[in-house]
């Protein structure tokens, strides 16, 4: 049970000792009861009760670098993507709102800390008049200081200050999380656009191949070498190729508009910059995940924010409990007064200590009890949310690791297939020029090669997007020099 501070600075009046003694005993008894009602978080980061697995259950990537995550974006070989990420973070309304929440939390923290200190006000007044018929006209001037202090005997103010500090830390983590999220979203959109451009090139090759096959089939049908059904099938295939090409180009257009909105870029200027490296996917640096889950998840901003929310809810519960006990307030003043009346001047100092006000809550219809129960329920909800966030974070990392392992296993076979179909096409093309293969065989080999190359492009997009997803799941990071303005308490 915490040690209680002894009240001082108030002297007993003659003949009033029993009343002062009774009041002191009442306050001391309430303080002892209040000190036994403290609420402390039970499940916090790093504690043995935190629901975090002891090890990863998905294959870990190999060959990655254990570098600072804040430098991960800089390791991409695409300066345009890096610039879009940076400008998108500055223009993001989510990041701006998170920064505003930091300012609000900072103001609340200052206010709660100030509430623990005495308040001091200065006043200056002057008046001139004749209060009655027998008093000559006079002038009165005064200047003084007024002091007020509510003694935080039961810890309500300290609990409020603790809650404010925790909410400030939570809002700072929320700002970090917003920056990591917008960076990952812009990067993912950019990768999808580059993959879309590459797939559009393959779709265009495929559409031209189908159109040429249809043209040759029409000529062969007109000459009687092909059945009309084959012409219909070739025309249908060509039309389907055009549909796929149009769909792919439309998807690319939508991605450009999405990227322009996310990064707050002029669309015409963005298109000019994108045209310099059409269809080229940026290559990320691989990450190594060797630490235990608890160590990895400890750096996630959303987990840190949820942990601080638990602390804030615990402090709110303590405050609600403390507000059920008496409140003690002390006031005092000191000043100087000058009175000039009828040629006589009087001046001097005036001061007072008190009154000491003790507010004893007797009956409020159960309001304070209900507030305390509600605060306790909010604390329990915060701990549940924190535990759920830990489970979700673990799942995010595990899912990304599984997808990375899957794309790694498929990459080899996809590359072999693409190489094989390309060689088959080259052989068929040589046979066609030698007159031993038909155009139909050549175009069929071309479409098989295009399909295999498109599969490789899609697999590359999926793998890069999964690396970004893993970066996001690990909590990302941020340059330290950009955080100083938000980390000062």
TrEMBL record:
Keywords: Lipoprotein, Membrane, Palmitate, Transmembrane, Transmembrane beta strand. The keyword DNA-binding does not apply. This is Efflux transporter outer membrane subunit. Belongs to the outer membrane factor (OMF) (TC 1.B.17) family. It is found in: Cell outer membrane. Coiled coil: none annotated. It comes from Billgrantia zhangzhouensis. It comes from the Bacteria. It is a lipid-anchor.
